[in-house]
Amino acid sequence: MSVSIRLSRGGAKKRPYYRIVVSDSRAPRDGKYLEQIGTYNPMLPKDSGERVKLNEDRARHWLSVGAQPTDRVARFLDAAGVKERAARNNPKKGEPGEQAKERAEEKAAKIAAAEEARKAAEEEAKAAAAAPAEEPAAEEPAAEDAAAEEAPAAEEAAAEDAGEEKAEG
């Protein structure tokens, strides 16, 4: 028979209260147990001494007999100084997932395309302003129309690119 030290849930709906129990590992979570060695009330503030109550002598006894604590109970035992718990390190925890990375790349590509279109429009505006004023007035509206036609064309191209990226995803 393998023995484990684990939490057994009690309390009401959305008001959890746990017993720290020693039980057969095959028994149901809230079922029959060998001994209750403490309590855990997650509704209390973290700095409260009443949050976790643990009979350290009995916990040491059951650990010496070979009982295996669950991860959460191992944290309680470590905090109480009964059993050392090896610190875990998960370097990928804060890293975004694959889809989030893809969305970020798409957004960066759209921003870069919009920036290039804005720069091109500024250069055309500078070129139009730098053109000699001696040209007939009839050609100036034609230059503005050409610039106005190119801006929607750039937007359509960006929209097509976005449509292709959505189709791929």
Overview of the structural elements:
The chain contains four helices and five strands; from the N terminus they run E-E-E-E-H-E-H-H-H. It has a five-stranded mixed β-sheet. It has 169 residues and is of the alpha+beta class. 49% of the residues lie in helices and 18% in strands. The chain has helices at 56-65, 71-80, 98-130, 139-168; strands spanning 3-12, 15-24, 35-40, 52-54, 68-69. The model has no long low-confidence stretch (mean pLDDT 82). It starts with a strand and ends with a helix. Strand 1 and strand 2 (15-24) form a beta hairpin. Helix 3 (98-130) packs antiparallel against helix 4 (139-168). The radius of gyration is 34 Å and the shape is rod-shaped.
Order of helices and strands: EEEEHEHHH
**What percent of residues are in strands?**
15-25%
Low-confidence stretches: none
Q: How many individual β-strands?
A: 5
Largest sheet: 5 strands, mixed
Computed structural class: alpha+beta
Rounded mean pLDDT is: 82
Into which percent range does the helicity of residues fall? 40-55%
Number of helices: 4
What is the approximate shape? Answer: rod-shaped
Distance between the termini: 51 Å
Strand order, sheet with most strands: 4-3-2-1-5
- Mind telling me the C-alpha Rg? 34 Å
